[in-house]
Amino acid sequence: MSIVFSALVAAFVGFAASVAVVLAAAQAIGATQGQTVSWIVGLAIAKGLASIVLSWRHRMPIICAWSTPGAALIAAASGFDLAAAIGGFLAAAALMMLTATFRPLGALIERIPMGIASAMLAGVIFRFVVAVFDEMKLQPVLVLTLLAVFLVARLINPFLGVIAALVAGLALAFGTGMASLPAGNVALTDLVLTWPRFDLTAIIGIGIPLYLVTMAAQNLPGFAVLRAAGYNPPTASCLFVTGLTSFLAAPLGAHMVNMAAISASICTGADTHPDPKQRWKAGIVYGLFWLAIAATAGLLLALIIAMPKALIVAVAGLGLVGSLTGALGQSMAKDSERFAAVITFAVAASSLSLFGVGSAFWSLVAGLAVLTLDALAGRLRARS
């Protein structure tokens, strides 16, 4: 029962804490309600199957998740429709599989300084956290209540903060009449295939940044959680399976599946099972829960979409506070990278768009350029 309970908590945390960010991404690229449901279904199937296959194959609790930072990146993009975005998703998934099979590519990605990659992620996420306080002007009672519940609940357990805020927001919205149950028949689930369009600007503006933030902000911490629990994760196998499931699910609208960190930490400890060799079963149960979410995604999203905009924005922003905190800390960790990281953060947080490519890509270019100039200047000073 401890295995089942841990898997259930991990699945609930993974869904409730970040589904609002995925909804923001779908809205940003003009997805219809049916396409949005399909997006969630595709992600749920992909992460469920990847978790089951990897946990069964390697006999360890390999927990997969959707890329929350990736969803935030997509939500911050502009000028793309769903077909072009799916072309970017396919490119990102192909790069993930290539990383698993072609070691030099993985080594090249690892050479990107963590401070620069983290600063890019922080800049993208920053807009969503700030939006919480922008919404406070329009719905002060609702947002202040969510903020208060979030701050108190996280003192008890960091995992509970966003979930408690979401539950409180749902209760307040329905209790005050700001939301009501959807009228008419609601489909339990929906699958909508969208033919991809391979647009170079979408591949550069969405695909490459999606791949980079997923590697830096999701996969690397996910592997670290497994190692901290005493496991030796098969990195090539994990990257290939998550890349393959992401590639297959992309036509449904799904953006990226990757290694989980927070959800994984729930299923890898002694609370799941005292015997580490038995904890792999949590990955199987976790995957089954996500397949159940896929079967009922239409109903779940209908309830969430009925909520006022301020609630969705606030929950999405609060759900990213932890990621922003970690990204800012990593970006400022090294004195030698700090100035370049600030430039990277500023560009990523802006609304810059050049040649149809958004700020996430250009922030990486700017940060690496500044870092290179700093290194060259340092060498010249050393010679003189």
Could you characterize what this model shows?
By secondary structure, this protein is mainly alpha-helical. Helix 2 runs parallel beside helix 4, helix 3 (33-58) packs antiparallel against helix 11 (235-249) and helix 7 (114-135) packs across helix 17. 73% of the residues lie in helices and 3% in strands. The protein has helices at 2-16, 19-28, 33-58, 68-76, 82-101, 103-110, 114-135, 140-156, 160-175, 200-228, 235-249, 262-267, 280-295, 297-305, 309-319, 321-331, 335-349, 359-383, and strands spanning 64-66, 257-259, 353-354, 357-358. It is built from 18 helices and four strands. Strands 1-2 form a two-stranded antiparallel ribbon. A two-stranded antiparallel sheet has the order 3-4. The model has no long low-confidence stretch (mean pLDDT 86). The radius of gyration is 20 Å and the shape is globular.
Rg over C-alpha atoms, rounded to the nearest angstrom:
20 Å
Please mark out the parts with pLDDT under 50 across 5 or more consecutive residues, or reply none: none
**Biggest sheet architecture:** 2 strands, antiparallel
Task: Compute the number of strand runs.
Answer: 4
Beta percentage is under 5%
Strands side by side in the biggest sheet: 1-2
Envelope shape: globular
Number of contiguous helices: 18
- What structural category arises from helix and sheet content? mainly alpha
